Amino acid sequence: MSQQPTGQQRDGVAIVYCEGSFDNAYGKTAHGLIRFTRRYDVAAVIDSHLAGRDAGEVLDGTPNGIPIVADLTQGLAAGDAVGSPPTHLVIGLATDGGTIDEPGLAVVRAALDAGLNVDSGLHDFLSERADLAELAFANGGRIRDVRMPPPRAQLHFYSGKIREVDSIVVAVLGTDSAVGKRTTAWRLVESLEAQGTGAEMIGTGQTAWMQGSRYGILLDSLVNDFVAGELEHAVWSAWKETGADYLVVEGQGSLMHPAYPGGFEILAACRPDAVILQHAPARTAYDGFPDAPLHPVETQIEAIELISGRPVVAITLNHEGLDSDEVERWKQRLRESTDLPVFDVLLEGAEGLADAVGNAERFGRGA
Amino acid sequence: MSQQPTGQQRDGVAIVYCEGSFDNAYGKTAHGLIRFTRRYDVAAVIDSHLAGRDAGEVLDGTPNGIPIVADLTQGLAAGDAVGSPPTHLVIGLATDGGTIDEPGLAVVRAALDAGLNVDSGLHDFLSERADLAELAFANGGRIRDVRMPPPRAQLHFYSGKIREVDSIVVAVLGTDSAVGKRTTAWRLVESLEAQGTGAEMIGTGQTAWMQGSRYGILLDSLVNDFVAGELEHAVWSAWKETGADYLVVEGQGSLMHPAYPGGFEILAACRPDAVILQHAPARTAYDGFPDAPLHPVETQIEAIELISGRPVVAITLNHEGLDSDEVERWKQRLRESTDLPVFDVLLEGAEGLADAVGNAERFGRGA
Asked: I need a labelling partner for B159 at 20 to 30 A (CA). Which of A260, A362, B153, B305 fits?
């Protein structure tokens, strides 16, 4: 097990199913789980093509002690071998149609037969399949479809109760989609915790949930009517129940992205005290839309501040496509053009970022 | 019947059910239908408290020949009397919970029994009630739940095909929610048509659908994942199928509204050539949120233009709370502060607005 220390209780020990895709983009949910999760201890990854290798070594070049195995039987054995009998099969595949193929379903059935719980972020809800629901019931397991919205009666309309929240709310937005907002948000939470400051992650996507965010919503799978109210309720609940000093909200999409315009609901409904802006300087067009040129980071800061009336207090870099000299040059350049601190949290950690956010006077709140 | 002339084929003759609420805000769907619809000829409104009066007279002080009746039987008779036997019962009530009470359900049953179709914009889907579905089937009627999203397999992700559209796309956004965007959009469509220009309404809410928009989405009831793609597909389909010179998109919410932040998806996915901004000068706070001061119209224009890169080309006024002198003073004041033409389309018609939009060179498109 190679998990970060945290006081948060785990849901259990997970086998991550990622057959055929641990080394490609369809495995992104598995990748998130392998790199970081507070929800599970990860016992093994299933991908027969890479069986026998170390998951961390395949993913990031650094072994992390999580074995890739060929099938469920080997996965169960891997957990048992280290004294952590697996309790959950977690679907680590994100397919284009959001469905799972017949061989995958067979593994789900076998896992339920073995008494495991099954967690899935697929669009195709496993708990709605009668055969799987029956198997789970018969064996005392539970199927959680992470993308399934709460029943309508449990959803909240925006009420304005966000004004009661006296935690410092920080939103991590991005200049693009898939730019590293979630990772930066987690690193900030960890650094605040390491400084002895109470901090809670407010997740807005399924990967954050699978990584253990205790508060949040699944923005993509909510009916639009309820987005503002559910965001408000998540932040308010985290404040009410934990009293954490800091609430860090994971952004989704990007303000001016043609296909994934996002962040404005977060600015409106979560009323952040400060905004961190994640940016990948090497990108020239929006993710997935090469004909849509990325708006300059300075313009995006202007838009965020104009819309929300709240300040961007730091820029965090995604260094994809940049060597370390280029990262330094970009940091310098962005510091000059924006007068903001600039961090690469993957290279340097998030302590500096936590300090920047902790300097609360700069955005008009008592420290 | 008091309907605007249009070449659009009607769905049929409607009886609008609005028991107990035709003279209050819960009757807003009925009010929209009474003032304007291309989808139905309206034969009568059911509200026993106001039975015997003229719907237009009650609503706007000007009789429009649509009788308010006490019950369904009288509604059917009213249509028959003028040679237009009713074909549809339309639920004109928008209740807080989106449900209908038992007396209302009894009217729905009676309407289905009489062979009528039933159209409803309630959250509580009538077609999912087995008894009503059976009644409809037995009597050859159809229940349409307007808010029911299309099946997932029929939904579209954003693809970028919006770039093919060479109609002029005009978005009618607002400085607030419930400020008159839809009415201005319809008036613009009508004025363009009156000038011999092809124009199509792209509706984004249930009332626009009930008023006869042939293209559009129900933004509120869509899962967030598909909002951009469905907006793009609606505009693209209207262009592809009608080749209309102008496509007028109804806005929803407002850019900086705390509970109903809207317009972003429209700016991103519909790529309007020009934006019209509807504004109620007498409002000082956002609709429903007295503690949230309205952003100045000048700031909102700046935000729209910054986010979208497209120009606001006209301001249209909602004159609620203003006398005619005040309207004139506001027009003058806003003309000076924004350098834009300002119209009150309810008072002066939309010809001037159509001219302003038709002056396409100003926003960089050939006329």
From this structure: B305
